[in-house]
Amino acid sequence: MTLKELTAHIAAEFQKHYGRAPRWIVAAPGRVNVIGEHTDYNDGFVLPMAIERYAIMAADAPLPGSVSAQSKINIFDAHFDETATIDISAPVTKGTPKWSNYIRGVLCGFQNRGVKIPALDVAFMSTVPLGGGLSSSAALEVCTATLIEAATGKAIDPIEKALLAQKAEHDFAGVPCGIMDQFISALGREGHLLLLDCRTRKTELVPMSDPSVALLVINTNVKHELSGGEYAERRAQCEEAAAKLGVKSLRDVTAEQLEQGKGKLSELVFRRARHVIGEIERTVHAAEGIRQSNWPTVGQFMYASHAALRDDYEVSCAELDAVVEIAEDIGYQGGIYGCRMTGGGFGGCCVALVKASAVDSISKTIAAEYKKKTGIDATIFSSRPASGATILKS
Ligand code: ADP
Ligand code: MG
Questions:
Q1: Smallest Cα–Cα separation from 388: which of 178, 117, 149?
Q2: Is there an atom of ligand 1 within 6 Å of 137 CB?
Q3: Interatomic CA distance for residues 287 and 47, integer angstroms
Q4: Which residues are near ligand 2, the ion (C-beta closer than 5 Å)?
Q5: From CA 320, how far away is CA 353, in angstroms rounded?
Q6: Residue 19 Cα, ligand 2 centroid: separation in angstroms?
Q7: What gap in Å lies between CA 196 and CA 199, rounded to an integer?
Q8: CA-based max dimension of the chain
Q9: Hey, how many other C-beta atoms are within 10 angstroms of the C-beta on 264?
Q10: Known catalytic residue at 181
Q11: Which CATH entry fits the domain spanning 213-383: 3.50.50.60, 3.30.70.890, 3.40.50.360, 3.40.50.2300?
């Protein structure tokens, strides 16, 4: 569904459920990280793109009448046909259903800023796949924050908004996420990627206006169960490398310095650091390649990123590798510039930079070859860089 279709759809859902038209409609996108993996907790760069998949909310003040209606937010989840009711007359706390906690966390964040939350009737849905690594959670948080902005008529600084949404995810969902997902959902702009410096939180919109290319998201539809310590172990190895090299974080180390300091590190920790340091460089260079519409170069950085995640950082898996191998086989001639795993790893999605005119044929080939290799059906869709959070009706 396009955003326009989705807007009409949620308005109709609101009308059906509440018997009147909504006053406000807001949306916030999911995201895919084009390059810059496992760099965020090393003070490095990431380069996410907002995708044309959104959390969307239609809302109105409750009808006058009942007193209790004036102290509540009702959120009807149109997809799951389930309603969450949140009491806003007191500090908002965690509660049920579980998904309402992302919303509760954001409401609490506004209360902490001294904002009086208005009572609302809300209809909600999302076209961001849930739990697929495309950040349906950040889309939901940023969408909620945007609704409060619309309903109070007061916008807040988009960076503060992203940080408020991140805090909601930390405190109310118990997920200690970085800043990328909420930043791109709040600050994305149509036709642009966002280069984000995770050390300084400085952001830069990178134009990707050439209509001849698109990003393809390929969900392997596998998620390998981990013993649990993998991410913590990678982080600890990065910290160890930085400490032994005498710096605060791996952001402060160049590839040459790493080579010079090789003797101080175990072979394993050296490889972990080599991925991170290389990836930070690749991300900055890829952003430059995008600015110049130099697609073959950007594609090479994506392949190099995947190789390092697979061989040095060891967070890939057979299915992700299979997708990248298929992409390499299709190759430049077939319209693919580059492909890599995206997200934390051990399953989830790949992202490929492709010729827009070849999206359909590439999607078909990848789906067929992936099925042949793994026996699994992949889910594939393409997206151009979408806009960040928007008020569609106010
Ligand atoms: P991801 O952000 O990669 O999609 P998460 O596990 O971080 O995965 O977030 C998924 C969770 O977000 C869901 O389990 C649910 O609680 C919540 N969520 C997101 N979108 C919706 C929705 N449309 N309806 C209900 N819950 C949602
Ligand atoms: Mg999430």
A1: 149
A2: yes
A3: 7
A4: 135, 137
A5: 15
A6: 33
A7: 9
A8: 74
A9: 14
A10: yes
A11: 3.30.70.890
What whole-number distance in Å separates Cα of residue 215 and Cα of residue 148?
31
Query: Is the CB of 77 within 6 Å of ligand 1?
Result: yes
SS3 labels along 30-91: EEEEEECCCCHHHCCEEEEEEEEEEEEEEEECCCCCCCHHHHEEEEEECCCCEEEEEECCCC
The alpha carbon of 282 and the centre of ligand 2 are apart by a number of angstroms equal to 25
Evaluated on CA atoms 228, 234, 235, 240, the torsion sign reads: positive
The predicted structure's pLDDT at residue 295: 98
Structure tokens at 101: 């906690």
Catalytic choice (181, 210, 312, 377): 181
Is residue 347 helix, strand or coil? strand
How confident is the model over 93-128, as pLDDT tens digits?
999 999 999 999 999 999 999 999 999 999 999 999
Which residue's CA is the closest to the ligand 1 atom numbered 12?
137
Whether 218 contacts 366, CB under 8 Å: yes
- CATH 3.30.230.10 for domain 3-208+386-393, yes or no, is yes
Q: What is the pTM of this model?
A: 0.96
If you average pLDDT over every residue of the chain, what do you get?
97
Q: Please state, in angstroms and rounded to a whole number, the distance separating the CA atoms of residues 387 and 263.
A: 47
> Which residue from 155, 163, 166, 153 is spatially nearest to 118, judged by alpha carbons?
153
pLDDT digits (tens, 9 = 90+) for 46-77: 999 999 999 999 999 999 877 778 899 999 99
- Cα–Cα distances in angstroms (integers) from residue 384 to residues 52, 207, 274, in the given order: 7, 12, 31
Q: In which band, very low, low, confident or very high, does the pLDDT at 32 lie, cut at 50, 70 and 90?
A: very high
Cis peptide before 207 (omega within 30 of 0): no
| In the chain, domain spans | 3-208+386-393, 213-383
Residue 368 Cβ contacting ligand 1 at under 6 Å = no
CA of 263 to the centre of ligand 2 (A): 38
